Amino acid sequence: MRFELKAVGPDGGVEAIDFQAPDEATAVQQLEGRGYTVLSVRAKHGFTARWASGRERFPVSLFSQELRALVNAGLPLVEAIETLAQKERRDEWRGVMERIGLALREGRPFSAALEQFPRLFSPLFVATVRASEKTGDLAPALARYVAYANQLEAIRKRVVNASIYPALLIAVGGLVGLFLLLYVVPRFAHIYEERAADLPVISRLLLAWGQAVHEHALVVLALLAAAVVAGIYVLRNARSRIGDALWSVPAIGERLKVYQLARFYRTIGMLLRSGIPLVAALDMGAELLHPVLRTRLGAASRAISEGRNVSQSLEANGLTTPVALRMLAVGERSGNMGEMLEQIAAFHDEELARWVDWFTRLFEPILMALIGLVIGAIVILMYMPIFELAGNLQ
Question: What global pTM score does this model have?
């Protein structure tokens, strides 16, 4: 996040400084560490700042891997954090690690030090560390979190990779269509206007568009650019509404539910294996679910607190699948609920991967056919008068 600070420099002059930091306190602390006296701080909330902040994320998984390696090597936790801070090149993240190390030297628990940065460290990560503090197994807890994060990242990459080719098809088809409408059609319109040709109605409408583009090219390009910017803005700021709309589509909504349940099961399984009680783990995992499922989870959590079976409570509130219900019952009988939940998540991940593969194989040829039809229709409507002229000559 970017901040504008006014500060008195080491030479006594007042300076306006544009600074990047995870939060206001870190920005002030880092500047004061350089000899400045901060007078005022103001967060930058412009469009570019929001765009940049959405892309900048603290590498929690990498941080966990490196910290686990140092702890396993025998370094005390404070020295391990300070070592990571020394090797960090980005001032923003170095400041975060320095503040964590300072909190540890003051005698505060590691989980409390992490809670200073709620934007960087999720409640799930903090809870994992807090559970490890009770058992003294920080390194294994970090290993479990890294494995959990890698599995979620693998699922996300699989979905992203499956959407790359359709996105390229849409982009290329759109560019070809724009080239025809903005460059080729206006020139055909000019030719047919000079010849005073008798055109079909649809061709006349298409060529009227081409003539309008030819006469008001800058206005049309400005409107297209504004439409692109507005579309990007809507996609970035209306994700919840788009998600709600997708949930209302029967086939897609069911798959989204299975995806969220699989992620939820994996999270709860990891928390249980870290030593967190079941009801507390359910409350921590609630943020991963859609609001509708979150309400159902609250009812299921209350039923579990009253002593009812986990599988029956989740099934009564629509938080299971047929496979998950059976495996949960097995986990209850064996007393190994954490491992069983992770196996349920792995099963549904594979099922979703097969569905994504099937959907992309079906969707790609349909998309190519639609793009070909649109481009072909534009070309045919442009050349239709020529075809008619050739027919009359014969």
Answer: 0.64
Q: How much is the mean pLDDT over the chain? A: 79
Q: CA-CA distance, 300 to 7, in Å (whole number)?
A: 53
Three-class DSSP category at 15: strand
Residue with tokens 């994996």: 266
**In percent, how much of the chain has pLDDT > 70?**
82
Strands 37-43 and 14-20: unpaired
Other C-beta atoms within 10 Å of 337: how many? 20
Q: Can you name the residues that pair with 3 across neighbouring β-strands?
A: 19, 43
The helix/strand/coil state of 31 is helix
Range of the domain at 45: 2-55
pLDDT over 50 (residue 48): no
Task: Check whether residue 180 and residue 230 sit in a common domain.
Answer: yes
Q: In what order do the strands lie in the sheet containing 14-20?
A: 14-20, 2-8, 37-43
CATH number at residue 44: 3.10.20
Does 25 or 196 have the greater pLDDT score? Answer: 25
pLDDT of the residue at 235: 72
Q: Please check whether residue 138 lies inside any domain of the structure.
A: no
Is the separation of the CB atoms in 327 and 345 below 8 Å?
no
Q: pLDDT category, 291, cuts 50, 70, 90? A: confident
d(CA 213, CA 207): 10
**Residue 68 predicted with pLDDT over 60:** yes
Q: What is the DSSP string of 34-74?
A: TT-EEEEEEE--SHHHHHHHHH----HHHHHHHHHHHHHTT
- CA 375, CA 177: separation in Å to the nearest integer? 6
Residues 208 and 80 in one domain: no
User: Would 201 be classed as within a structural domain?
Assistant: yes
Compare 383 and 39 and report the one with higher pLDDT.
383
| CA gap 259, 179 in Å, rounded | 39
For 190-250, give the DSSP string: HHHHHHT----HHHHHHHHHHHHHHHSHHHHHHHHHHHHHHHHHHHHH-HHHHHHHHHTSH
